[in-house]
Design brief:
CATH architecture of the largest domain: 2-Layer Sandwich
Order of helices and strands: EHHHHEEHHEEEEEEEHHEEHEEH
Helix content: 25-40%
Pfam families: p31comet
Largest sheet: 8 strands, mixed
Strand content: 15-25%
Length: 425
């Protein structure tokens, strides 16, 4: 993977874009908690490399740390060899430069080990929070502090990722290719990535729902060299107005299909008891009912009980002229129940046993006015402010970026020959 090279005609870093850069990435397969954790981890690694916080890609950095012991032993063996021309001043200078490079390399490898240790601790803490299902998004901040960040990258997760289950085999490679294809083809994001950025401190914050409290209270061991760190509550967090903001919205195609279901207990079920006849009809404002064919109208055929008026005439003609939804007489009942739900009669109460999926076109009930619909849904309204629905938590782990070891020695004399001799002893 190659780093994006800044263009020569790029603007200076002082002219930052105040408007957030929005990037949308859509996955063909549903993303569960494990898949979202993998996507967030890959994005954080990509941001750190593209913004110059690590000198090489993350995988290459891990390989360098893995080879630290073998390379160090090779340097020790090479330093123990006797020199035939120790009195020669040229050989003496080469030996001094060689030991200097070896010392710089050891310091650089120590930074690599510290960086990987902090990154793994942050990753484990992030995975634990994602397993709770209350995480809305993850933010990576580059800057001296959380409040005064120079750049922020907010990764917004799908809303229903916690309820998804992986029904197809995971293909992280294909998902990663599509992810980076969307990132590198966005022109606004390329302008941000092309701006020069020095080595900064790296902060990771988590946006969680306020309804659930699943934060890690104590540090606990998760492996031989990894520990999960604490979460710091940051309710006062707000971004600086000069911070360059990037929002990456991750979406997926959910496998759940929408269908109309009959109501549950206490939701729009009304019982009419007129003598020995009982009828159950649906009166829920959440379902739109229409009748589009004669076949559907036949299903709703109802018979009206005739009532003799005072003068002896029948009121059946008057009832037949009005639709059932407009008849408010308690004398009217249905011979055929509209709602096909098995019920259990116990002490004159109706208890729905099974919720049967029905098609909305088969039902036709009275229309609801806006005032009735508002009154029926008052119990489900959330009257709290939108900003109070979520809160911020900071992962108590400081990650510092670092430069390449070879950039520190460009001004040293004969550095090329010494470096080659050090790499290939």
């Amino acid at each position: 993977m190659q780093r994006l090279v800044p263009s020569a005609s790029g603007q200076s870093y002082g002219t930052r874009c105040k408007k957030p850069v929005a990037v949308t990435v859509t996955s063909d397969t549903p993303l569960d908690m494990e898949a979202c954790a993998g996507v967030v981890e890959v994005l954080v690694k990509h941001i750190l490399y593209q913004r110059g916080q690590i000198p090489v890609p993350f995988d290459a950095l891990q390989r360098e740390a893995r080879l630290q012991r073998s390379i160090s032993q090779a340097h020790l063996r090479d330093a123990a060899l006797p020199l035939n021309a120790r009195q020669n001043s040229v050989s003496r200078k080469e030996e001094i430069m060689k030991h200097k490079l070896q010392r710089k390399r050891q310091q650089w490898l120590c930074k690599v080990d510290k960086f990987l240790l902090n990154f793994n601790s942050m990753k484990e803490s992030l995975h634990n929070e994602l397993k709770s299902g209350s995480v809305r998004g993850v933010k990576v901040i580059l800057g001296s502090s959380v409040m005064t960040g120079r750049e922020s990258y907010f990764i917004r997760l799908p809303e229903d990722y916690s309820s998804q289950s992986s029904t197809q085999p995971a293909k992280p490679h294909n998902r990663g290719l599509k992810l980076f294809r969307n990132l590198v083809t966005n022109e606004a994001l390329l302008k941000v990535m092309n701006q020069p950025c020095g080595v900064q401190r790296i902060w990771v914050m988590v946006q969680k729902s306020t309804g659930l409290k699943n934060t890690t209270d104590h540090t606990k061991s998760l492996g031989a060299n990894t520990t999960a760190v604490n979460m710091i509550h940051r309710p006062e967090y707000s971004e600086h107005q000069r911070t360059t903001k990037v929002e990456i919205n991750i979406q997926h195609r959910s496998v759940s299909a929408s269908m109309d279901l009959t109501p549950t207990v206490g939701s729009g079920i009304t019982l009419h008891n007129l003598g020995t006849k009982r009828s159950l009809y649906l009166s829920s404002p959440s379902v739109f009912h229409s009748c589009s064919s004669n076949r559907n109208q036949g299903m709703l055929t109802c018979t009206y009980l005739e009532k003799e008026s005072d003068n002896g005439t029948s009121d059946s003609d008057r009832h037949k002229m009005l639709p059932p939804s407009l008849i408010r007489n308690s004398d009217c009942t249905y011979n055929k129940s509209i709602l096909k739900t098995p019920v259990k009669l116990y002490k004159e109460d109706i208890i729905p046993m099974v919720e049967t999926p029905v098609h909305s076109s088969f039902l036709k009930v009275e229309s609801f006015t806006p005032s009735k619909q508002l009154a029926s849904r008052l119990g489900t309204f959330n009257l709290s402010d939108g900003t109070l629905d979520t809160t911020w938590y900071q992962i108590d782990c400081l990650i510092s970026g670092f430069r390449d070891m070879w950039n520190l020695l460009k001004s040293a004399p004969n550095s090329n020959t010494s470096i080659n001799h050090t790499i290939n002893p």
